[in-house]
From TrEMBL:
Sequence positions that bind substrate: 5, 66, 142-145, 175-177, 197-198
Coiled coil segments of this chain: none
Binding, a divalent metal cation: 33, 35, 66, 175
Pathway: Carbohydrate degradation
Gene3D superfamilies: Aldolase class I
Molecular function GO terms recorded: D-ribulose-phosphate 3-epimerase activity
Swiss-Prot/TrEMBL keywords: Carbohydrate metabolism, Isomerase, Metal-binding
Keyword Isomerase assigned: yes
Stored SUPFAM superfamilies: Ribulose-phoshate binding barrel
Protein name: Ribulose-phosphate 3-epimerase
Cofactor(s) the protein requires to work: a divalent metal cation; Mn(2+); Zn(2+); Fe(2+)
Function: Catalyzes the reversible epimerization of D-ribulose 5-phosphate to D-xylulose 5-phosphate.
């Protein structure tokens, strides 16, 4: 699955930018990734619930909200109630990740847990039994356009094994520095869903970039 990140899109035309990856066929994205940053958990500030809700209402594509915020135990539920398809919170910020996941699911969303590049996977495996998505960050969260950190693929391999052996039942998602040069190794390691900001919205035709990424990922999965 390919999830274009609107972090790299034109913020004055967000609904149009989403529509550009919503046309049918190979150029259609699977999810649209919306990065929420609060200038506390990360040093950057993007958008919040009112804008996220407007984007959810603007499209039939599933919206994947990546909350890089403090106190997600309090704030994440609003994104689920607004109709986000998947709401991902950071393990480093959540106080009670199990209750949080239950609340997100009860509000009708899929629940996602994200770990920064330096955060190990093992301490979160039990909590992940309550989650639908694991978002492995392959850059330090906060900014688009950074270089992919290949070391995180070890965590992807571990997560893939846990899913394939039935210990976890979730989608393995990766975020940061994904492009046609890096997607193949991520696919080979076992990623199911690839977030791509610059690689999609930095391209002349975002839809064609989605198709190219999907094709390259399929090569990694096959090889
Ligand atoms: O969560 C993020 C940054 O914190 C973004 O989703 C991510 O960086 C996407 O941008 P790019 O593909 O350009 O790296
Ligand atoms: Fe993100």
């Amino acid at each position: 699955m390919i999830a274009p990140s609107i972090l790299a899109a034109d913020f004055a035309r967000l609904a149009d930018e989403i529509a550009a990856v919503a046309v049918g066929g190979e150029t259609r994205a699977d999810w649209v990734h919306v990065d929420v940053m609060d200038a506390h958990f990360v040093p950057n500030l993007t958008l919040g619930l009112p804008v996220a809700k407007a984007l959810i209402d603007s499209t039939d594509l599933p919206i994947d909200c990546h909350l890089m915020i403090e106190d997600p135990d309090r704030w994440a539920i609003g994104y689920a109630e607004a109709g986000a398809y998947n709401v991902t919170v950071h393990a480093e910020a959540a106080k009670d990740p199990v209750t949080l996941a239950k609340n997100l699911r009860a509000a009708g969303a899929k629940a996602g847990l994200s770990i920064k590049p330096g955060t190990p996977l093992e301490p979160w495996v039990d909590a992940l039994k309550h989650y639908d998505t694991l978002l492995v960050m392959s850059v330090e969260p906060g900014f688009g356009g950074q270089s992919f950190i290949p070391d995180v693929l070890e965590k992807v391999r571990t997560a893939r094994r846990l899913v394939d052996t039935g210990h976890l039942k979730l989608i393995v998602e990766i975020d940061g520095g994904i492009n046609t040069d890096t997607i193949e190794q991520a696919a080979e390691a076992g990623v199911d869903c690839f977030v791509a900001g610059s690689a999609v919205y930095g391209a002349a035709e975002p839809g064609k970039a989605v198709a190219a990424l999907r094709e390259q990922a399929a090569r990694g999965r096959a090889g």
